[in-house]
Design goal:
13 helices, about 40% helix
């Protein structure tokens, strides 16, 4: 029997061949040196990511300090923006407390509208021990590019099964199950979902969890009750308003992808004289501060962002101090349903107001 050939290790020359540059250029890019154009750096980093190449730390590289860098990355700003500043602050609080306890300094660097190759370039050769990256708006390719630098790295607020990288995220499936179970226990059968067409991993995971858990609980999905809106407050409000003006027939209750979307959706419903929760029940996700003080207060999902931040530093510290290569770690933090007033109806059997019928009957509706 012929012996199987040992898998050849990737070299800088392999990267150079794929990127169409010299090995010397690849070396300069990986070590953050030289006058290399942004376009060339991007080509090299993309080649590194596509080949899943993990470079060894060069001997001449600047010695790492006891500094951890948190990358607050807003690629498009549809989810990483001021509407969500509170939960990002909670992430930072959790990281900062644990970093200090372990003898690190935490620095926070914001990147808004910058390419991933530019962000990766800023890390090459930086005097830091490790990186925690906010992955909310990052694609699989983006994660691979940052991971390819070879720095100890943990990604939070995102999750990819098949990437050999470290993730700490919320357990979306568990959270959505709790939402749908609550609706079911209150006697609702027609359950809707307000999704978002903004491309983020957690939004996608919540949508998948909605369909999976509806089946798990023996509930029927009405495709017309799954609607999609923008993820900002104003965007969700305007999109929901357009749907209502078009005569969208409402479900008995809705799970909204996050609290900000719930706020915009509720505002649009109120303009159609639709009462929350007597006409339509609502549950959100994130437990933002406004959710407890609005009227009615919003039933929502709470996941400890501080716990996620704490765990990210814990995993990163293990990577930094490990004497040998470590397997990737993927952690999901459980959710708690915070029961308030927005989903508890006096009469669960009462049919929701139908904007189309309201229009036909001369009901008060905004003029389009």
């Amino acid at each position: 029997m012929a012996l199987m050939k040992e898998k050849k290790s990737l070299t800088i020359r392999d990267i150079a061949d794929v990127a169409g540059v010299s090995p010397a250029t690849v070396s300069l890019v990986l070590n953050g040196k030289g006058e290399i154009s942004g376009m060339t750096r991007a080509r090299v980093l993309e080649a590194v990511a596509s080949l899943n190449y993990i470079p060894r730390i060069a001997k001449g590289r600047t010695e790492a300090s006891d500094t951890l860098r948190f990358l607050k990355i807003a690629k498009h700003g549809h989810t990483v923006n001021r509407d969500h500043s509170h939960f990002i602050s909670d992430y930072i609080d959790g990281m900062s407390i644990e970093a200090t306890r372990r003898g690190y300094t935490l620095e926070v660097i914001s990147h808004e509208g910058q390419s991933i190759s530019t962000i990766a370039e800023s890390l090459a050769g930086a005097p830091i021990s490790g990186v925690i990256a906010l992955g909310t708006e990052l694609s699989e390719s983006d994660v691979r590019i940052i991971q390819s630098l070879g720095l100890p790295t943990v990604f939070i607020d995102t999750f990819y099964d098949v990437i050999d990288a470290n993730f700490v995220n919320m357990n979306n499936e568990d959270a959505v199950y709790k939402v749908l179970s609550r609706f079911q226990n209150q006697g609702f059968e027609r359950i809707g979902f307000v999704a978002s067409h903004v491309d983020t991993t957690n939004f996608r995971l919540r949508k998948e969890a909605f369909f999976k858990n509806m089946t798990r609980l023996g509930l029927k999905v009405n495709e017309a009750d799954v609607i999609s809106v923008e993820s900002t407050y104003d965007g969700a409000y305007n999109d929901a308003l357009s749907l209502l003006r078009a005569g969208t027939e409402l479900a008995e209750c809705y799970f909204c992808t996050n609290d900000v979307i719930a706020y915009g959706f509720i505002k649009a419903l109120r303009e159609f004289d639709i009462s929350i929760p007597d006409d339509v029940s609502i549950i959100g996700f994130d437990n933002l501060p406004l959710s407890s003080t609005m009227e009615p207060s919003l039933t929502t999902i709470d996941v400890s962002k501080r716990k996620i931040g704490y765990l990210a530093v814990t995993v990163l510290d293990d990577l930094i101090n490990a004497s040998e290569t470590q397997p990737s770690v993927k952690i999901l933090v459980g959710a708690e349903l915070i029961a308030r007033s927005s989903d508890v109806r006096k009469d669960p059997q009462k049919p929701a107001k139908n904007p189309r019928k309201m229009r036909e009957n001369g009901g008060k509706l905004p003029v389009a």
